[in-house]
Amino acid sequence: MDHTDPLNDSITRRDWVTRRAKTLSLLTLDTASWCAGFLVASWARYEFGITPRQCASALGAAGVCAVVHAALEQVRFTARGRHPVGSVGDARDLGGIVLMTAVVALAALLPMTDRPVPASVPVLGAAVALLAMGGGRVFYRWRRDRDARPARSADRTLIYGVDAASERLIRVLLGDPASGYLPVGLLDDDPERQGLRVAGLRVLGGRNELTQAVRRTRASTVIFSINGSDAALMRDVRSRTLQSGAAFKVLPPVRELLDRPVTADAVRDLQLTDLLGRAQRVAELTVERSGLAGRRVLVTGAGGSIGSELCRQIARCDPGELMMLDRDESALHALQMSLHGRALLDGPELILADIRDADAITRIIAERQPDIVFHAAALKHLTLLQRHPGEAIKTNIQGTVNVLEACRDVAEFVNISTDKAANPISVLGYSKRITERLTAHYADRYGGAFLSVRFGNVLSSRGSVLTAFQAQVRAGLPITVTHPDVTRYFMTLQEAVHLVLQAAVVGRGGEALVLDMGEPVRIAEVAQRLAAEAPKPPEIVFTGLRPGEKLHEDLFGVDEIDSRPLHPLISHVRVPPLAPAELAGLDPYGEPEELVKRLAACCDRSRARLDDAARPDDAARLSALPAPR
Questions:
Q1: Class of the domain covering 155-270
Q2: pLDDT at residue 175 is higher than 90
Q3: Which of 137, 157, 195, 621 is least surrounded by Cβ atoms within 10 Å, i.e. has the fewest?
Q4: CA gap 274, 276 in Å, rounded
Q5: How many CB atoms lie within 10 A of CB 82?
Q6: Which residue has the higher pLDDT, 238 or 410?
Q7: Where are the beta strands (DSSP E) in 420-478?
């Protein structure tokens, strides 16, 4: 049965014809250049009085040189390949071939007594031919680049910031007719870069000249591209851009692009996270991803913000099998779509199950036999759980016990916790603190690397304060903040995932890992910045702290010590174990107020300071880690 695709065959034939046409065009150009070079050289040699016989001799010699040139070109192509036409490499190779051809011609002419052309003709003729060949190739490159440039209808664009990423972006935009952006100039505050040209575009000044540059170039968009720039600079450039009447776009820092190349699709609108003024630590966390290669990995809560990003990052590490478990079928559908561009929901990688179902979880883990489990499934909304503590018990506590009980033969288990587990005063904090202690218990019981990871507020995750603020602004509602002085620790989704993956490498059983998230952010300031960016600044309303909320979050409990034996940005906190038997009195169907008291008592029970001395395997762990930056 013939399985050939007529469309692919047609494309292949068309490509073959195009390549042959280009080769024939270059061969014609080179032959014509040699002929022109020898004619000009002969004309000059005979003092501008060349006879028909001398002209014929010059053309004959030029034809021989053209054949030698073509042969040398083929040898070079076979041995080393071909550079793009009109490139620096192509010019270098072309010069070498012309020189060798001239040497061959001279070597053939000098022994002759009756020379068809004077010995000076190959020398001068080769120089003229090289100029003609080079000029033709430059013209070809110019025409090709011009045809590939965005259409005149594309947004005329200024790019602020000259660095490696912006240079790549400029070349990508100039070579992509569908990009929608036509670069027309550059801006940079560095005095040494004034007047510099990149891909033919000139630096027109700094931010003080932005309005003038927009007017001169008729630009409608400014793309901000400076790696490591502070939020104040970005806010200033954005303000000047909007005052000039142009749109403001951002090229994300290279650390956010991860393994993706710089493309036109990377250019995006400004996000509030760009304006927080918080330096990301993700670039300083070196993750040894080879530890996941070939291993069987299970992620619970795979459809959530953290779980889905974990799956996307783990998929890049070439695991032996990636198993994604969630009770939300729509979330699994969206996750598979983001991973593969399609979502047939018919593969074994997706597991529809609820961690509350102990029998199902036990059966799944026994059948699939994962080597590593990342436990991200949980309820996380503080206020809702404060009103329904029984649900926190059923999902966050009993669900975690179900997973831990089933992981008897699992080598590594990473429990996703929260900074609210440090000195908890809310149902969410109590439940997550209990899961940390349960994980520590099973680390002792099974002897595996069972540990927890504490997150701050993850920017742009579902239900985060920033997402809520942005929704209020879009709806034209006031921005509601609980208290003028309330602060929170923030981390980006990339930092959260890096910390989890790092935990799988450096974490030790019975610990909780905490990322150094820098200084806490005052929520009222975030609201003020967001309000200032809105077309119509909304009112900011203070509603008061809700039950279970803290004015300031803690990263460590009162009995915990900040120890960083393996990485300067990751703290290792020893967690006192808690056996499931000690939770026997927790009835999820009891009175909410009584349940809250019992949860608090479980967190306090058996609280004991743990010796923070380094373990014997610290030296081995340290030798396996890359040196911190």
A1: alpha beta
A2: no
A3: 195
A4: 6
A5: 15
A6: 410
A7: 449-455, 457-458
Which residue in 293, 498, 339 sits closest to 414, CA to CA? 498
Pick the CATH number of 296-462+486-519+547-614 from 3.30.450.180, 3.40.50.300, 3.40.50.720, 3.40.50.10490: 3.40.50.720
Task: List 570's β-bridge partners, or say none.
Answer: 515, 567
DSSP notation for 95-158: HHHHHHHHHHHHHHHTT-SS-SS-THHHHHHHHHHHHHHHHHHHHHHHHHHHHHSPPTTSEEEE
Q: Residue 341: which pLDDT band, with cuts at 50, 70 and 90?
A: confident
Give me the sheet containing 570-574, strands edge to edge.
350-352, 321-326, 296-300, 372-375, 412-418, 449-455, 511-515, 570-574, 563-567
pLDDT (tens digit, 9 = 90+) per residue, 299-315? 999 999 899 999 998 99
Is 486 within 8 Å of 551 (Cβ atoms)? yes
What element of type H or E holds 221? strand 221-224
In this structure, what DSSP letter does residue 552 have? Answer: B
Q: Of 41-55, 457-471, 613-627, where does the model show the most confidence?
A: 41-55
Read off φ and ψ for residue 512, nearest 5 degrees: -125, 130
Cβ atoms 450, 413 nearer than 8 A: yes
Of 84 and 1, which is predicted with more confidence? 84
Kindly report, residue by residue over 399-414, the tens digit of the pLDDT: 999 999 999 999 999 9
The DSSP output letter for 203 is: B
pTM: 0.66
Q: What is the mean pLDDT of residues 179-188?
A: 86
The answer to whether residue 620 scores a pLDDT higher than 50 is no
C-alpha 414/C-alpha 449 separation (Å) is: 8
Task: Tell me what pLDDT residue 359 has.
Answer: 96
Residue 330: pLDDT above 90?
yes
pLDDT single digits (tens) 489-509: 888 787 788 878 887 788 889
Supply 525's token pair: 């300031």
| Exposure letters 204-239 (e unless 16+ CB within 10 A, then b) | bbbbebbeebbeebebbbbbbbbbebeeeebbebbe
53-106, pLDDT tens digit by residue?
A: 888 888 888 889 989 988 888 887 777 767 777 777 888 888 888 899 989 888
CA dihedral 460, 462, 463, 464 (to 10 degrees): -20
Residues 412-460 pLDDT 10s: 999 999 999 999 999 999 999 999 999 999 999 999 899 999 988 887 6
**Exposed / middle / buried, residue 153 (Cβ in 10 Å: 0-12, 13-18, 19+):** exposed
> Which residues sit opposite 250 in a β-bridge?
224, 268
Cβ neighbourhood burial of 171 (10 Å; 0-12, 13-18, 19+): middle
Token pair, residue 165, equals: 């990423």
Query: What Cα–Cα distance (Å) separates residue 283 from each residue in 74, 498, 570, 576?
Result: 46, 9, 14, 32
Helix pair angle (592-604, 427-446), 10° resolution: 40
- CATH 3.40.50.720: which residues of the chain? 155-270, 296-462+486-519+547-614
3-state secondary structure of 304: coil
* Amino acid letter, 461: S
Residue 601 CB-half CA count within 13 A: 11
Q: Give the tokens for residue 303.
A: 């459809």
